[in-house]
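Class prep. Write one:
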Amino acid sequence: MIIDIHTHLFPDEVRNKRQSFCCRDDGFRLLYGNEKARMASPDDLLKAMARDGVQQSVICGFPWEDPGLCREGNEYLLECSSRFPDHLIPFACLPSCTPRLAQKELERCLSRGMPGVGELAFYRRKINLRDMKNLVSVLRTLSGRRIPLLLHTNEPVGHEYPGKSPENLQTIYQFLLALPDVYIILAHWGGGFFFYELMPEVARAARNVFYDTAASPFLYRPQIYNLAVKIVGPGRILFGSDYPLISPARYFVELKKSGLSARVQARIKGLNAGHLLYGSDRPGTNQADHV
């Protein structure tokens, strides 16, 4: 089974009245103010999945500052999932305004059966110490539970693009130390965070961390797959397309170029995500699986 761990859907109203919502949220305007920035409907996503052989996709909304918009977005994802329960898996977005309201929305979404949280993001600025403390206070409830958190990260160097914040990987490290028993998916290869797992203390802090491949064709050469497997093993890499940013097929072409075995490619494409979302045991990191 191929599972896409990272896609985005928006209600019809948001897609049809884009500029109105840009006026209501600066982060949304930064990413979607340009009319060329694509937004997808469930039908768009399902067609892309069928075309590229993807059986299931995690659907995410947007981390609105307005808790009302977050709630509406989460309700929309639940509705999409109820219509296509075998194909669409809804993750809960949380408002970035106050920890109390975020906690309330998290509890509501978990009670409705949402199996994950994210993509949480700070698009206009880097995550500061106060942000981290607020997030930790809200997300501690996920400790020891198979409810993964998808967190936006980006590389601290290189070219600029909408939503690229001045990232501080030290803050990510402190965040992992504060939530050692939460399964965390660092989007976009963790902004390169996995390279630092060559440091023993970072590897220990990241023992429950997974890395998704979202936007990889825009950021890295295909060799990143091979390097990541060598550093963190084959069990903690998850295919994520960030659809509709990039179609799944483009990732599969690059993954094939990586030179990894068919077995390892299958793990990245879906087996790892299946273990994380449904399995009772952690995916293995047996070095023998690298070839």
Notes: The domain at 3-290 is CATH 3.20.20.140 (TIM Barrel). The first helix runs from residue 12 to 16. The chain has one domain: 3-290.
